[in-house]
Amino acid sequence: MSRVLTAVLLTAVLGFGPAMAQTAPAAPAPAPGGIQSQNIFEVKPEASADPNYLNQSNGERNKVQPGNNAPMWRQVSGGVTGYSSLPVAEAPEAGNLIQPFVQYPGSRFTNAGEAWRQVRNDWIIPYGAALLFVTLLALAIFYLTRGSIKLHGPETGRRIERFTPFERATHWSNAIAFVTLAISGIVMAFGKFFLLPVMGGALFGWLAYALKNIHNFMGPLFVVTTIFMIVTFIRSNWPSAGDLKWLVRAGGLFGGKEVPSHRFNAGEKVVFWGGVLFLGSIVIGSGLFLDKLIPGVVYLRGDMQIAHMIHGVATLFMMALIMGHIYIGTLGMQGAYKAMREGHVDETWAREHHELWYDDIVAGKIPAQRSGMPPAARPLPAEGHTT
């Protein structure tokens, strides 16, 4: 019995052992280390290969490229208005994070804020500074070569009232407002280039902040005084037949006898019509818009940026024009500053610089003394003139 049992056990071991060995799973081979190569033809295409890739919504994009929110930001930069709980009257653009794309003259096609920055930094600032510098340099060269325009004859001591007290008050109030605005504007626009390195950030920041507030508060005063300037002097600046001849010969500034003119010559009329009236109106309109002082207007970022560019360009041209006016009224012509400071000029000055105006006074068409002050002695007729 024991022999039979032993034989059965040996048969089981010898018969099933090889089968079990053959069916047992093989142990996995160790994974090789380092960078693994891959067949490029087996790589799946990127998500951007989908023909509808650019039209995907933000949810569809996140399915193929989690974390890629390009569709949402494309809508934001395209000017799409989102929801905002702020009232539209107080914050009309609260739902717009990024302005839509535009292209201003001198800028690339980009969002409006960046386009404004490019126009300001690449055009208005450098070329505006060059305009003011060239104007100042030209005036300096002219003064050093030509000198001040002096009288050719002796003063007679007989005075003619050129500006009344009201006219002088109007002029000086407007001049003070303009110079204050010009200086504060120059510091805010160009100060970081020539003041910041010297003063440091803290002091320059305080100065720029103070001048910004002065600029904003002085603006309305400039508006009022400019209106007074236009109303007060428009009659004397009306164009006349001799203005073209004066302009062609530049009034005789570059040699020769000065071209006869009325109370104001053509050069002064150019300053009045081109500087005070035309450029001044643009500066005032854009400035009031930037100060948000025009009632009934919705102030949007894009409109404010356009107004700022217009304001800057018009102001720079106006400053260049007024610089020439200031030069003639101070260093450039003997007796010109005294006329605006005291109101009177000598008879010789009137005859040499504004001969037609002097002739009208001699003829009695214009009073030699127009204010309520005691009248000055009437000028004697010059040689060749009759009363």
Features:
two-stranded antiparallel sheet; single chain; 3% strand; 58% helix; mainly alpha
Helix content: 55-70%
Determine the number of helices (DSSP H or I, runs of at least 4 residues): 13
Largest sheet: 2 strands, antiparallel
The radius of gyration computed from the alpha-carbon positions, rounded to a whole number of angstroms, is 41 Å
Principal-axes shape call:
elongated
Distance between the termini: 172 Å
Strand order of the largest sheet: 1-2
Mean pLDDT: 85
**What proportion of the residues form beta strands (DSSP E)?**
under 5%
Order of helices and strands: HHHEEHEHHHHHHHEHH
Can you walk through the features of this model?
The chain has 387 residues and is mostly helical. The chain is 58% helix and 3% strand. The protein has 13 helices and four strands. The strands form two sheets. The protein has a two-stranded antiparallel sheet with strand order 1-2. A two-stranded antiparallel ribbon has the order 3-4. A hairpin with a 7-residue loop joins strand 1 and strand 2. It starts with a helix and ends in a 25-residue tail after the last helix.
